[in-house]
Every structure is written in structure tokens, then in C-alpha cells.
Specification:
Elements lengths: L1 H5 L9 H13 L8 H35 L6 H8 L2 H30 L8 H18 L1 H25 L12 H4 L6 H12 L19 H30 L2 H4 L5 H8 L3 H35 L18 H15 L4 H29 L16 H41 L7 H4 L14
Helix pairs in contact: 2-7, 2-10, 2-13, 3-9, 3-10, 3-15, 3-16, 4-5, 4-15, 5-6, 5-13, 5-14, 5-15, 5-16, 6-13, 6-14, 7-10, 7-13, 9-16, 10-12, 12-13, 13-14, 15-16
Subcellular location: Membrane
Pfam families: AA_permease
InterPro entries: AA-permease/SLC12A_dom, APC_superfamily
Length: 457
């Protein structure tokens, strides 16, 4: 019975708006918290340069992600790509990196929820609310991805609207009435070009997670339509939101305060001295955190489920619920891990490991795209989307991802060493122990059986 369940496919119930809600929902929280560490690293000007530079990287990443994802309609996204293009060891690492990217992001959401609840009263105990929120979201994911992402449409839409409300509250359009004072509150480029390099790391926080749209490729009604529309409109939404976020926050909060804030947009609302706006941004921050945690549960569980279904980890994690057809074992297994990281209280450290894991996935994805085009040139297989100007997008992703990793070295070199060590030890464990249980026929049994023989093979 269990074997039959593990071979089941996830139901195809998602459209473009659900993909948008997943991608933007996961990322939008990064405009309510975390991005402001770019100011600590590179100053106010370095922050907006990092925002737009990293935005270019994500435009390229979405292009290559969507092309490969549209022809590999399996849960797991970049993991599924690595399975067919790089082999078992690389696929195991990519899957693990995806899981930790989203588990750590979920932990960061929990940290911010706790901190913002403390603003209500020093006597507020945040822990019960955090646990209750994550339990409810986990239960929602347990019941089904369609309802989960329907909720994310509402949460994300309302949270994004609060950013727009804050923008117009400042009367930025009126030189005489505007509340913004960029000239007095910003600090330019205090650390020069090296500051910009250091800021790239947290510039990722404006967009990190949008690439997770491909993780639900198997659950899209029309993968070739839903992925491109959902991912591209989502990225446009984020670029607009990121620019507004920097503009409003930097014009209302002094740079030295903004650089250390746990919830910068909420602090910007406080700076308006308008109770209604403060309450609206409090709600927006909470909703953004909930939407992000909701999407992270969905994405992390899909990566873990896919690895188990392909026998890279025990197949018990790939069991689908007999009624709801969700990977419920994977969903429940990852919850306590996320909670454990969340209660460390180390927001920048948690964010850093999430970013580090994501950057490694980006580098491998760019390499996979180059290999994919060599193996399957345009015209050899049907694509739902074709990335333009190949291989330029892949090269840009490689360069900017590498530069961001290098920039991380200056403030978080211990984290880099620890991260590389962790994935090295995981690889050794896989090669010398877990690979013995790999069923190669199961591993390669899906997806590309009807493709032509690749070029050069």
C-alpha cells in the first residue's frame, strides 16, 4: 500500500495566479525585514545599487529556471533539473540546499513574528503565537496546496497593498508636503565599492525564494503557461515593491537605525506618527511573514518529497496522504526543524545560511542551463518558454552569484566555512552510505523518457 502511495503523482490544480502567490508570497516578507542589512554593509546608496543589481540576477535566473522547469514538470524544481542533468550526488545536494533555503527562511519569518508581537506590550509572550501560526499553516499545507495558495493570494495581495498605502501616506509626489527626507537621513556610500559588494548578500533578500515557483511544476494544470506567467509577473511585482521599500524606509528612518532594524517597514510606519498607518503596517508585516512561511512549507516539503520519491532519502518521506494527496510526512517532518532554527534568535545568521544555500543552487542552475542547451538545442524538444540571449543570462547569474558569495566572506566567513563543511559532510555521507540504497531505475523513471537522445550522447 505504501509503495503504491509513493508512486502517486501530485494533483494538477494550480494556475498562474497560484504560482504568482507562491513566488511573491515567499519573498515579500524580505521587503518587510532583512533587506535593510544592506545598509549596514554598503550604506544607503549601496543598498539600492545592490537591490537593482541583484534584481538583474534574478531576472536572468527566472528566465533560465522557467525554461528548464517548463519541460521538466516534476515537483522539486531545481532538484529535478539536477537529477537529469547532473546525476545523483549533485541532485542530493541541490535538494538539500533547497530544503535548507526554505526552512531557514521560515525560521526567519518566525523570528520576525516574535519580535513584532513584542511591540504590542513587553508582557506579550510571542512563543505561543509563533507555534500556533506555524501549526495552522502546516495543517493547511497538510490539507492541500490549492487551498494553501488560495490563502497566499489574499495574504500576499493585502501585504503588498500596505506597502503602497505607506508610499502614498508620505505624499512623495508633493515637494512641499512630502514626509520623505532622503538627503538628511541617508548616508551614501560610506564603504565605497567594497560596501556594495558586501551589500549584495542581503540584496538577495528582496527576491530570494521567487525561484521556488518551479518546485510546484508537477502540480500546475499547464506547466508551460502557469510557470512563465506566474514567475515573470511575480518578479515584476517584487522589483516594484523593493524599490518602493528602499525609497520610503530610507526617507523616513535614519540610516544607522534602519541598518539594525528587525522590521524596517514597520519602523518607517512608526516614523509617520500616524496610528492608522502604524496599525496597517503591523498587519502587513504579520501577513507577509505568514504568507512567506506558508510558501516555504510548500516548497521545502516538495523538495524533500521528491528526494524521497527518487530514493535519495528514505521513501517513507514520499508517502502521499490517501485523501488529500499531499506529501504530509515531509510537511510534518520539517516543521520542528524550522522551529528549532527560529528560536535561536539569530536573524542575520539564519538569513545568511538561507542566502548561502540559495546562491549555491543558483550557480548550479546556471551551469545546468548551459548544459541543457547543449544537450537539447532549441527545436529538439517542446519548451513552454524559451530564455532569450542564451548563454548571457547564465553567465550573469554565475558572475553575480559568485560576487555575492565573495562579498559574504567579509562579514560571515565563518558561516561560509560552516556551510561548505556541512554540504561536504552530507556529500560524504551520501556517497559512502545512502547511495547504497539508491534505486537508479526509480531515480530516472519519470519525466524525460520520451525525449530524444541528447546531442553528443
Amino acid at each position: 500500500m505504501m509503495e503504491k502511495m509513493t508512486e502517486s503523482h501530485l494533483p494538477k490544480v494550480l494556475g498562474p495566479v497560484h504560482v504568482w502567490a507562491l513566488g511573491v508570497g515567499i519573498v515579500l516578507v524580505g521587503q518587510f525585514m532583512g533587506w535593510n542589512f544592506t545598509i549596514a554593509k554598503g550604506g544607503s546608496l549601496g543598498a539600492i545599487i545592490a537591490c537593482w543589481t541583484i534584481g538583474i540576477m534574478y531576472v536572468c535566473l527566472i528566465m533560465i529556471n522557467t525554461e528548464m522547469g517548463s519541460v521538466i514538470p516534476e515537483a522539486g524544481g531545481q532538484y529535478a533539473m539536477a537529477k537529469y542533468l547532473l546525476g545523483p550526488l549533485a541532485a542530493f545536494n541541490v535538494g538539500l540546499m533547497l530544503v535548507f533555503e526554505y526552512v531557514m527562511l521560515e525560521a526567519a519569518d518566525a523570528l520576525v513574528v516574535g519580535e513584532i508581537l513584542k511591540t504590542l506590550s513587553p508582557d506579550v509572550q510571542a512563543l505561543p503565537y509563533i507555534i500556533l501560526s506555524l501549526l495552522l499553516l502546516t495543517y493547511l499545507n497538510y490539507r492541500g496546496v490549492h487551498a494553501t495558495l488560495n490563502l497566499n493570494i489574499i495574504l500576499t495581495g493585502v501585504a503588498f497593498l500596505t506597502i503602497i498605502i505607506l508610499l502614498f501616506t508620505t505624499k512623495f509626489y508633493s515637494p512641499t508636503e512630502s514626509m520623505l527626507n532622503l538627503k538628511a537621513l541617508t548616508n551614501g556610500l560610506p564603504y565605497g565599492a567594497m560596501g556594495i559588494l558586501g551589500a549584495l548578500q542581503f540584496g538577495c533578500w528582496f527576491y530570494l525564494g521567487i525561484e521556488g515557483t518551479v518546485l510546484v511544476a508537477e502540480e500546475c494544470k499547464s506547466t508551460g503557461r502557469a510557470l512563465p506567467l506566474g514567475a515573470i509577473t511575480g518578479l515584476v511585482t517584487l522589483i516594484i515593491g523593493a524599490t518602493i521599500t528602499w525609497f520610503v524606509s530610507s526617507g523616513l528612518v535614519e540610516s544607522s537605525i534602519l541598518a539594525k532594524s528587525t522590521y524596517p517597514l514597520f519602523d518607517a510606519a512608526i516614523a509617520t506618527n500616524k496610528p492608522l498607518i502604524i496599525n496597517i503596517l503591523f498587519m502587513g508585516t504579520m501577513l507577509a511573514c505568514l504568507a512567506s512561511a506558508n510558501g516555504c512549507i510548500a516548497d521545502a516539503s516538495r523538495a524533500w518529497y521528491s528526494m524521497a520519491r527518487d530514493t535519495l532519502i528514505p521513501k517513507s518521506f514520499a508517502v502521499l496522504h490517501p485523501k488529500y494527496k499531499t506529501p504530509y510526512v515531509a510537511i510534518l517532518f520539517l516543521l520542528p526543524i524550522s522551529l528549532a532554527f527560529g528560536f535561536t534568535g539569530l536573524l542575520d545568521q539564519v538569513i545568511t545560511f538561507s542566502i548561502f544555500s540559495a546562491l549555491l543552487v543558483y550557480i548550479l542552475t546556471a551551469y545546468m542551463m548551459i548544459k541543457f542547451r547543449k544537450m537539447y538545442p532549441i527545436g529538439s524538444i517542446k519548451r513552454g518558454y524559451e530564455a532569450k540571449w542564451h548563454p548571457v543570462p547564465s553567465i550573469i547569474v554565475l558572475i553575480l552569484s559568485g560576487a555575492t558569495l565573495f562579498g559574504m566572506y567579509f562579514g560571515y566567513w565563518i558561516n561560509l566555512v560552516a556551510g561548505f563543511t556541512f554540504y561536504l559532510l552530507a556529500s560524504i555521507w551520501f556517497v559512502y552510505y545512502r547511495s547504497k540504497f539508491l534505486d537508479y531505475n526509480t531515480f530516472m523513471s519519470k519525466g524525460v523518457s520520451n525525449w530524444p537522445r541528447p546531442e553528443g550522447y
